[in-house]
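Q: I'm building a small set of examples for a reading group on sequence design. Run inverse folding on the following structure and report the sequence directly after it, with nothing in between.
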């Protein structure tokens, strides 16, 4: 969805200064809102849910290493099972190794521009919650 038009963020911190919990609201054009939460204080669902006009898409369990996706439309649910057993990061390692073997310095999946925009967004959040390294 690109760079959020506006970002709201609130956080709590451990005594040592590390952030213990962070809630964020990203607002995009066309009234699209993304609500995110990361926390070490409670056991929360590790899923991503997309509410669309005609249905819902839920990346089950660990959204960063999905093995199933549930699609709900017209009150019918379909679970798509990818039949993968992974912790997710192996795909990054495989891709990085491919780049090295091909002597490429930039990924066609995650460009330098995307990486820069991502770190700018993270910097905005750190500024809003007062997190300093």
């Amino acid at each position: 969805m690109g760079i959020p038009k506006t970002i709201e963020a609130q956080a709590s911190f451990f005594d040592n200064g590390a952030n213990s919990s962070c809630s964020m609201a990203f607002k995009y054009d066309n009234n699209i809102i993304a609500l995110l939460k990361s926390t070490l204080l409670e056991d929360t669902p590790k899923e991503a849910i997309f509410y669309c006009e005609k249905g819902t898409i839920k990346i089950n369990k660990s959204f960063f290493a999905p093995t199933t996706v549930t699609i709900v439309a017209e009150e019918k649910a379909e679970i798509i099972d990818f039949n993968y057993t992974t912790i997710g990061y192996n795909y990054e390692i495989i891709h990085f190794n491919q780049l090295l073997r091909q002597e490429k310095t930039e990924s066609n999946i995650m460009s330098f521009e995307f990486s820069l925009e991502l770190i700018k967004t993270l910097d905005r959040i750190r500024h809003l919650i007062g997190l300093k390294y």
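The radius of gyration is 18 Å.
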